[in-house]
Amino acid sequence: MSTTDDRRFEILRAIVTDFVDTQEPIGSKALVERHQLGVSSATVRNDMAVLEAEGYITQPHTSSGRVPTDKGYRMFVDRISEIKPLSSAERRAILSVLDSGVDLDDVLRRSVKLLAQLTRQVAVIQYPVLSAATVRHLEVVALSPSRLLLVVIVDNGRVEQRMVALNEDHDEDDIARLRDLFSAALHGKRLEAASAAVAELANSAPDDIRGAVLNIATVLVETLVERGDDRLVLGGTSNLARSAADFTPVVGGMDTVLEALEEQVVVLKILATTQDMGQVTVQIGEETQTENLRGTSVVSTGYGASGTVFGGVGVLGPTRMDYPGTIASVAAVAKYIGEVLAER
């Protein structure tokens, strides 16, 4: 990249930084005063004219300065060479908050609250994906001779409970046999591969408990193996009110963003495409491919442990966002969610 291109990027970087801080259009005089650009105001004005002609900045009003466009934010994000890491105190605070969670639900609730506080944006976390989870333990509890409670614990921290109605009564010995059969068949297996194991179990079960095996197998397959992963935890939606002015140019304003958040499938779809652990993805404006979110940016990544992705985590806010700080916070929280869940 030429020296001229480097200089123009520094001007763009300064415009993005100042606009994020002030929410006011940025003029050439302010840039020269605030930043050591090493060139005259005339050169800055000329470079700003080129940046505007190329679509990186725009002038919202004839008498105002310039603001970044989505294309400008994209160049800024793509050329972030160094993300400032969180301090040791911040990292310890994150781990302390998450490690205090009593169960999966509590850990995820704490995570969205913490991430929303760190970024001052809306935080979103997808519940661990069941299909990719491995069965750690399965318990069969008799509530009555013809009614069972299944408890399935998987390696990503999720605990699923299901009721099973049996076609006939069974005693404690039968329940113990059922527990042993299903535990042996499913322990250590991924739920996405569990259908075959459950089907084989139903075919080979002893005649006297085959009916019960079929009842349990049906519940497992229909409610765990074949169920979509559609649970999402939101936090910090009130932060949108702070940025209401950023959404006014968008058709429908902030209401359209709230509608998209209510339709969780929209956010889940975005998270599903950005679940590489250790790799934070930034989608800006129309890159979200969602009409109601074209005035927003989504910063997201995957969380998990031992190379297995449990789900997606990220933040959503206006395109006028502190991208370096947000990227660092999302990466850190995702890392610690995975560590905390892996230890449970």
Automatic annotation (TrEMBL):
InterPro entries: GAF-like_dom_sf, HrcA, HrcA_C, WH-like_DNA-bd_sf, WH_DNA-bd_sf, WHTH_transcript_rep_HrcA_IDD. The keyword Heme does not apply. SUPFAM superfamilies: GAF domain-like, Winged helix' DNA-binding domain. Keywords: Repressor, Stress response, Transcription, Transcription regulation. One of its GO terms (molecular function) is DNA binding. The keyword Electron transport does not apply. Belongs to the HrcA family. Negative regulator of class I heat shock genes (grpE-dnaK-dnaJ and groELS operons). Prevents heat-shock induction of these operons. This is Heat-inducible transcription repressor HrcA. It comes from Gordonia jinghuaiqii.
